[in-house]
Write a structure and sequence with these properties.
alpha/beta; Beta-Lactamase; 7 strands; about 20% strand; DauR-like_HTH; YheO
Length: about 220
């Protein structure tokens, strides 16, 4: 089955999960072939402000770049955050073709609140059904309960979020960073797949207060 046709078979599942869980559950279907126009189906997008054609998130890009899908079927129960600051409990199911290559991601994001505990439990059961053939692949990333994904609605904010997270690891302003530190930041961004986004080089260069040619030089460093 062609990748696009296979992905389209998951669209009813997007609606099914959203109808069962309710309005505080955002469900998306991503096409990872076109990361800049990745969302091909969405329900309750009001939660993050996303709609059809929105890009893949920073976390999604990292999963794609690191090929996390090769040894697991999903990443579940991690924290994400909207542009408005709302925190959500999120899970991502990897959709693969017959060659075990990733073609899409089914993502479920539930608004965190005391009233949504039963909703989360229901969603866990739905994810477990998807993982029925490989339950050991149910891997969480919540050991330190850090927010690992920013639910952004534009390409610019996806890049901004990815850069800000890495810069935050350094206890100093950008203008005081050394060449080695800026090189390390660019290498980390590359490892997280952010340069799959068109225009990311320009954005990163501006944030790091350097030139695009310098960013390319940092990328070439090993």
């Amino acid at each position: 089955m062609k990748a696009k046709k296979l992905l389209e078979t998951y669209i009813p599942l997007v609606n099914f999960i959203a109808d069962i869980v309710g309005p505080h559950c955002e469900v998306l279907l991503h096409d990872v072939v076109d990361v800049q126009n990745s969302v091909i189906a969405i329900r309750n997008g009001y939660m993050s402000g996303r709609q059809l054609g929105c890009p893949l998130t920073d976390f999604g890009l990292a999963l794609l770049e690191k090929k996390s899908y090769l040894n697991q079927n999903a990443v579940v129960n991690y924290l994400s955050r909207t542009a408005n600051g709302d925190k959500l409990r999120s899970s991502t199911y990897f959709i693969k073709d017959e060659n075990n290559e990733l073609i899409g991601m089914l993502c479920v994001n539930i608004l965190l609140s005391p009233d949504n505990v039963s909703v989360k439990n229901l969603t866990d059961k739905l994810i477990n059904v998807l993982l029925a053939n490989n339950p050991e692949a149910n891997t969480g990333v919540t050991e330190e309960e850090n927010v690992v994904e920013s639910l952004c609605s534009s390409i610019e904010t996806v890049v901004d979020s990815a850069v800000e997270k890495i810069i935050a690891e350094y206890d100093m302003p950008v203008e005081r960073m050394s060449i080695d530190e800026k090189t390390a930041i660019v290498q980390k961004l590359s490892g997280n797949g952010i340069f799959k986004i068109k225009g990311a080089i320009t954005k990163v260069a501006s944030t790091l207060q350097t030139s695009e040619s310098t960013i390319y030089r940092y990328l070439s460093c090993k």
